[in-house]
Sequence to fold (427 residues):
Amino acid sequence: MSKSKQLFEQAKTVMPGGVNSPVRAFGSVGLDPLFIESGKGATIRDVDGNEYIDYVGSWGPLILGHAHEEVLDFVSQTAAKGTSFGAPVELEIRIAEQIIKMVSSVDMVRMVNSGTEATMSAIRVARGFTRRNKIVKFEGCYHGHGDSFLIKAGSGALTLGEPTSPGVPQALAEQTLIAGYNDLASVERLFNQHGVDIAAVIVEPIAGNMGVIPGRADFLQGLRRLCDEHGSVLIFDEVMTGFRVHPGGAQALYGIKPDLTTMGKIIGGGLPAAAYGGKKEIMLQVAPAGPIYQAGTLSGNPLAMAAGLKTLEIISRPGFYEALNQKAQHFFKEIEKFIAQEKLPLSLNYVNSMGCVFFKDGAVSGYADAVQSDTEQFARYFGALLGRGVYIAPSQFEALFISAAHTPEQLDFTLAQIQEVLMKIYK
Ligand SMILES: *Cc1c(COP(=O)(O)O)cnc(C)c1O
Fold:
């Protein structure tokens, strides 16, 4: 038995499903997870000594790849001085300044520990600021595991949401209204019916948790307009897209200013950090400046601030995104060409260094399209790539990330593996 398998058996006796986060269990591809021993650059090594080229990047944070020297050095220097004080440290100001410099809609920022905490806090702040209760979210968008987000559309004519997980109270679910991604008319209907009660609209400007589906510009502009007309807070959840698709986030790509932005993943440079921020008048309502309560024992933790700040500094250097995007565009365009040339029943969506191959014929522009994907074919594709040393996310509905550490040779090797695997599946 492999060491990964042995460890997984042990893990299942002490952790639910053997993991600390469900998708890690490889459940949707019917395999057992690999236990990882180490990572360097774009390569990870499992406990059995197998090496893989990694396109998961810890689900998004590792835009610089694993164990980046400068990040490690700064984290160890910081750690040597003590790991946590629960008192202000200067690094918190420096990362806040850096975020505000990079993301133009953010005047003030609050650091938290996870994307989930950022989105939970952002909707509380929006509710406290507007003194309204309802929020609008989109089918297929993921905002972490907060109660208000584990909601699907109610059946029939009801627009009120229903919980997707036991443990979420129906009374809370009714405060979440569900609209269709890239479907502005569905949002207009909700505003017509509930406008005066809607505190916030929260959206992934580029959806990355139902596969990758870019928001259409007119859709996102329409959300901005509807929120302005109805006095609602527009929240861009940029936990995945922030610092990924552009140094200023997806909002800079689209030229749209949300009122609040949630950030995570890259912002912590591989350590647990996330943030929410936005307009000064809203952020000044957060305690202790204002009455809306939100706190955290480890928020602004020096090690996480060090990893995040160093990462943000490195990606701000001239030419960083040009080089990353050029490399990624070449990779995705080659896949696109191959799909077209071989007339494969697949669809590829990508924005700069994030992308996704859908096992579905024809364009994927919303949740209804994404769920038509053939997840059994995906599972075969995943397993075959893994066997060839290519580690992608173990689910059809996740993004693939290119990091600055991927070498042209690694990308070319991966392209060849993808092509061979697809030919085996379809020809
Ligand atoms: C990953 C993610 C979250 C949740 O972040 P966690 O750190 O896993 O809690 C929220 N929103 C989006 C868009 C994400 O991609």
Summary: The CA atoms of residues 135 and 368 lie 21 Å apart. The pocket of pyridoxal-5'-phosphate is lined by residues 114-116, 119, 142-144, 204, 208-209, 237, 239-240, 264, 274 (CB under 6 Å).
